[in-house]
TrEMBL record:
The lineage of its organism: Bacteria, Bacillati, Actinomycetota, Actinomycetes, Kitasatosporales. It comes from the Bacteria. Residues 55-136, 396-470 form the YdbS-like PH domain. Coiled coil: none annotated. This is YdbS-like PH domain-containing protein. It comes from Streptomyces thermolilacinus SPC6. InterPro entries: UCP026631 (IPR014529), YdbS-like_PH (IPR005182). The chain crosses the membrane at residues 31-52, 169-189, 209-232, 347-367, 373-393. The keyword Chloroplast does not apply. Keywords: Membrane, Transmembrane, Transmembrane helix.
Length: 487
């Protein structure tokens, strides 16, 4: 019945524009009758379809396989997964499922394809049954250090972390979405022109610059409110813990409760991510670098690899050390700086990219003999070039690489700075890239290939000799057969 109830919500949402569209030709009573009839028909159809699906769906957990059979009218689907290949059992429950005491169980094999053949989904089972399935399917043969591996709670929600939500990139995006939503709703009700006229009357005596600033501030304020609400929905009740048998479990969510599990033996490291906004406030988040993480989700804002939301950098380093069972966080290890030639490359690319729009405006202004375009070209260059230079210098300062215990560490990026700590034993290959400009500058880009996470992690523009020594020392025996011995 859950699908029918959810369908009722979609039907109710679609009833508003439908009612407004039918009011003209049919009148209010006729339009209301048509919309109500359609609403009831959709709800009844959804309830009936869900009832048939639930009555004709069976699953079985055997010693070797998990099987799912679903019969819907003439369609008969049978699927199964080998138990030894199961790597994740994630539980989610939106508000309606939580009220009914149900959860959705997603069983994955850990394959990177993320397709239908690598997952099984039980759309609505009891909460206790979902927990039982999760424990049973993730249970592995107990090793001698099972007790020592149970560390319990690694991190728990601190409500003060919400202060980083407004400075994320989500806030301006939600602000723009809010403006678009207002215009769409006003169009539904046929008052879009009145809204625009009202705003025009409100700012009739106001200079254009202040109009733009005021509207941008209003949109940003709406985005900040939306970012706070989204953060609360995603991260409330957050808890990161290590369970017996070596499973990392993340639980979070206010309206939609989520329980995500990562087998510790699939963990190859962590990635400390610092988008520019939260980095300016000294914060970072932690993502898992593991094999077979789910690549999709019903919630587009959801992520299956985040172990920690944006938190103070010190806290992020501490949690990274606990997750990796290291006495000191590899993400905070001292790194080797890259040569100044790497800075020159970034300055050239940044200033070149910043001058392109100014050059286009200048050419158009000269060709069309429009002085305003020439002024715009000069203003664009004066605005973009300093910003590009600052970002290029920051990108150079953020470059670094090193070795910390059993992990190789690489850092890069400016708008999104990333520090990855990757198990040296998880590197299965090195790719060496060198463009003509890099070859002349004595630079080299290394790419560590692994079966986990994004599959490849780059060390950009390192010194050629230093980069080769680093790669050889990080994974002994992997690169040496392809190197010429020094004279």
């Amino acid at each position: 019945m859950v699908t029918g109830a959810a369908g009722a919500g979609f039907a109710a949402g679609g009833a508003v524009p439908a009612f407004l569209g039918l009011t003209g030709p049919l009148g209010v009573p006729g339009a209301l009758l048509v919309v109500v009839a359609g609403f009831l028909l959709l709800v009844a159809g959804g309830v009936a379809l869900e009832y048939v699906r639930c009555r004709r769906t069976r699953y079985r957990v055997g010693d070797e396989r998990v099987e799912l059979q679903s019969r819907l009218f003439v369609l008969d689907r049978r699927r199964s997964l080998p138990r030894e290949r199961i790597r994740s059992v994630d539980l989610t429950a939106h508000l309606l499922l939580r009220l009914l005491g149900l959860v959705k169980v997603r069983i994955g094999t850990g394959e990177s394809t993320g397709g239908a053949e690598s997952t099984l989904e039980l759309h609505a089972v009891g909460r206790a049954e979902g927990e039982r399935l999760r424990r049973e399917l993730l249970r592995r043969a107990a090793g001698p250090d099972t007790t020592a591996r149970h560390d319990g709670e690694l991190a728990v929600l601190d409500p003060a972390w919400i202060r980083y939500a407004p400075v994320s990139f989500v806030a301006p995006l939600l602000g723009g979405a809010a403006v678009g939503g207002v215009m769409q709703v006003s169009e539904w009700f046929g008052v879009q022109g009145e809204v625009i006229d009202r705003v025009g009357d409100l700012f009739r005596q106001t200079p254009v610059v202040w109009i733009v600033v005021t509207l941008a501030a209003a949109a940003l304020l709406a985005g900040v409110v939306g970012a706070l609400a989204l953060w609360v929905e995603m991260w409330w009740n957050f808890r990161l813990e290590r369970e017996p048998g070596g499973t990392l479990r993340v639980r979070r969510g206010l309206l939609t409760a989520r329980s995500l599990s990562i087998e510790e033996r699939r963990l190859r490291g962590v990635e400390l991510v610092e988008p520019l906004g939260i980095r300016l406030f000294g914060a970072a988040r932690i993502d898992a670098v593991a094999t077979g993480l789910a690549q999709g989700s019903d919630d587009k804002h959801d992520t299956h690899k985040s172990l920690l939301p944006a938190v103070p950098r010190r806290v992020a380093d501490e949690v990274a050390a606990r997750v990796l069972r290291e006495p000191a966080p590899p993400t905070g290890a001292p790194l080797t700086r890259h040569p100044r030639a790497a800075r020159a490359r970034r300055l050239r690319w940044a200033t070149g990219a910043a001058l392109v729009p100014a050059f286009v405006l200048a050419v158009l202004g000269a060709a069309l003999d429009v002085r305003a375009l020439l002024y715009a070209a000069g203003a664009t260059a004066l605005l973009l070039v300093p910003c590009a230079v600052l970002l290029a210098l920051d990108a150079y300062r953020n470059l670094g690489h090193g070795i910390s215990g059993g992990y190789l560490v690489a850092r890069s990026g400016t708008v999104r700075r990333s520090t990855v700590a990757l198990q040296r034993g998880g590197v299965i290959g090195w790719t060496l890239k060198q463009s003509y400009a890099q070859r002349r500058a004595g630079l080299l880009t290394l790419t560590a290939t692994t079966a986990a996470g994004d599959g490849a992690y780059d060390v950009y523009d390192t010194d050629e000799s230093e980069g080769l020594r680093f790669a050889a020392a990080a994974v002994p025996g992997l690169l040496e057969p392809f190197l010429e011995p020094a004279e």
